[in-house]
Design a protein that fits this description.
This protein is mainly α and 416 residues long. The chain contains 17 helices and no strands. Helix 3 (45-74) packs antiparallel against helix 10, helix 10 (231-260) runs parallel beside helix 15 (368-382) and helix 10 packs antiparallel against helix 17 (392-410). It starts with 6 loop residues before the first helix and ends in a 6-residue tail after the last helix.
Amino acid sequence: MKFKLTSLEKKWVLYDVGNSAFTMMVSTIFPIYFNSLAESAGITDVDYLAYWGYATSVCTLIVALLGPTLGAVADTKNFKKIVFSVAMGVGVAGCILLGFLSSWLWFLGIFVLAKTGYSASLIFYDAMLTDVTEPDRMDSVSSHGYAWGYIGSCIPFVICLGIVLGGPSLGLDMQLCMILAFLITALWWLMSSVPLLKSYKQKYYSETGAHVVRDSFKRLGKTFVELAKEKHIFVFLLAFFFYIDGVYTVIDMATAYGQALGLDSTGLLLALLVTQIVAFPSVLIFSRLVKNVRPETIITICIAAYFCIAVYAYWLDTQFDFWLLAILVGMFQGTIQALSRSYFAKIIPAEKSGEFFGIYDICGKGASVIGTALVSFLSQATGSINIGVSALSVMFLIGLVLFRYSAKLNRGYKNV
């Protein structure tokens, strides 16, 4: 039987379509524009890659520190939509402001603000999965979110790319082109959020007293104590910490990596557009397979594939190599994210989804602090960008071993 999304599930998926436009910009036009600002200030290619990596690490560290606390607040009755809206608003405002900046340092600062808002919004968005659907539908709904997010983000990206590449030939100033590109991305993100904000109702929540923040801290403390006892959740998070670290580092630094290698900017942007296009059918194909194949098996395949991709990055030095890398990443990127999200949602208490997804975010985007910092440090220490990126293979290998152990622990769990 053909899988059909409910009205609320579609609105939840639509937010993925909106925020993915920002992700696409961060992976493509943002680092290229920052590179031009850095070059104007006399910054070398190696230092440019390092600064971009450090900025990404800072914003993920902020979210990692605040995520569990904000997640606990979000689990309070009727609070999840509020904190989600604030985080999304900060991200949208920061995205608009970026187009008006010409200083590389100010650009990095506002980028940290915008990406922090974006990342924080995803904590609450992911936690909404338990409210908008049922456990037996989570794999498919989560996969549809990533699939439509990938293909949907191509629409504003193509428009922005046309403005940035074609604007100067039409007599438009590059600064104006960037303002328009960032504005289009922000509005796409904002408008895609409206249907979810209008329809979402928080089904699962934790009871609290008059002191919301204080009670949230207490609940969070209890959750960490419970987590130490819930071995099946703890080991999964540990595995996730390592393998998703590499995934997010590849997403955050792909264009910066290609730029630092001296590859053609237009070719890099088109290659990453291909990644989005390839990801769309790939996620949907895997979402069909998961009905007959255990999600643990598919996640294992994805981790192993990423290990091979990281090893291959050591020899990458041509445009063709980058295109091949982009296609391979597209085949597995969405699936490993989608199934990890739904897998986790099925093994945690629904009424504490905000708290647990806050911790999940520490192990996810927060973990990329290590990945981006590792790539940046090794690139500067060895003078070789390829060595820095290929070092991520170690993270995937550790993640693979730990995930197989967590899969064994979770096999008897009722929702998996």
